[in-house]
Amino acid sequence: MTGRSPLPDFYRLLRLDEVDSTNEEAKRQAQTGAAEGLVVWADSQTSGRGRRGRVWVSPKGNLYFSMLLRPQGSAGAVAQLGFAAALAVGEAALSLLPPETPLAYKWPNDVLLAGNKLAGILLESQAASDGKVDWLIVGIGVNLVSFPELTEYPATSLAAAGAEIIAPLTMLSAITTRFERWYECWNRDGFAPLRDAWLQRVQGLGEAIRVRLARSEMTGRFAGLDPAGALLIDTGQSVERVAAGDVFPAAG
Ligand code: BTN
């Protein structure tokens, strides 16, 4: 159903009890011409998915939503909005937790609490024939009350970190409000302010990391972000730029 939205005016809310994946529904809506600002929010997902084809287990109680955007730029450039999403989730979470909470960002788009994954972000886009993006879906999953055990990267929830139990709609509103600000900032000032804010709370800068790429792995020191958002890894021989991959502690 669509109705009067509890979100900022920029958005229109499509609320569902259950869906295969909010990203999938947002994509269907994009392909039939839906305008920027659509938010698809579901109580649960039957085929929630994460990056690199992983499953995102989606029982009731946590937050699952996707925003449809139509930003100007190439697929590479609009991927910077994943950092806007991470910042919005991080700021929303910090507004509910003690200020000293060890919240950190892990490249490219994860939000960690005390080193455990609180939220994941899945970007999907389609480019038009001129190379510019036609639509971008920003899918966000936040563990509010439960989290999966035995994941490759350990997970946590807001409740496990000591926050009051928070309703998904409250968190949705908190995140979308902050995301809209970062989206405006990106449109106006580019990626630099997002990069600076993200680096202030980055996980493991200067530490030994292992980066899993599509067909290989790299180890080295996490040397920062390039101006476009790619990860920089110092292998000892050279500083390499990684556009897509999964980061783990070197020993992990
Ligand atoms: C990841 O960390 O691998 C990304 C996880 C993204 C999960 C969210 S939940 C809402 C949206 N719908 C999906 O199917 N996936 C994203």
Helix and strand topology:
Layout: E1 12-19, H1 22-31, E2 38-45, E3 63-69, H2 75-78, H3 81-94, E4 103-106, E5 110-113, E6 116-127, E7 133-142, H4 168-189, H5 192-199, E8 208-212, E9 217-225, E10 231-234, E11 239-242, E12 246-249
Parallel strand pairs: 1-2
Antiparallel strand pairs: 2-3, 3-7, 4-5, 5-6, 6-7, 8-9, 8-12, 9-10, 10-11
Helix pairs in contact: 3-4, 3-5
Residues 21-23, 45, 48-51, 54, 56, 64-66, 110, 120-122, 139-141 line the site of biotin.
Name the poorly predicted regions.
none
Question: Span between N and C termini?
Answer: 44 Å
| DSSP summary, beta strand count | 12
- Helical content stands at 10-25%
User: Ligands bound here?
Assistant: biotin
β-strand amount: 25-35%
Q: Sheet with the most strands?
A: 7 strands, mixed
Rg from alpha-carbon coordinates: 17 Å
Strand order of the largest sheet: 1-2-3-7-6-5-4
- Quaternary class: single chain
Shape: globular
Q: Count the DSSP helices.
A: 5
Instruction: Report the structural category.
Output: alpha+beta
Can you walk me through this structure?
There is one protein chain. The chain contains five helices and twelve strands. It is an alpha+beta fold and 252 residues long. Strands 1-2-3-7-6-5-4 form a seven-stranded mixed sheet, with helices on both faces. It has a five-stranded antiparallel sheet with strand order 11-10-9-8-12, with no helix packed on it. A hairpin with a 4-residue loop joins strand 10 (231-234) and strand 11. The mean pLDDT is 93. Bound molecules: biotin. Biotin binds at residues 21-23, 45, 48-51, 54, 56, 64-66, 110, 120-122, 139-141.
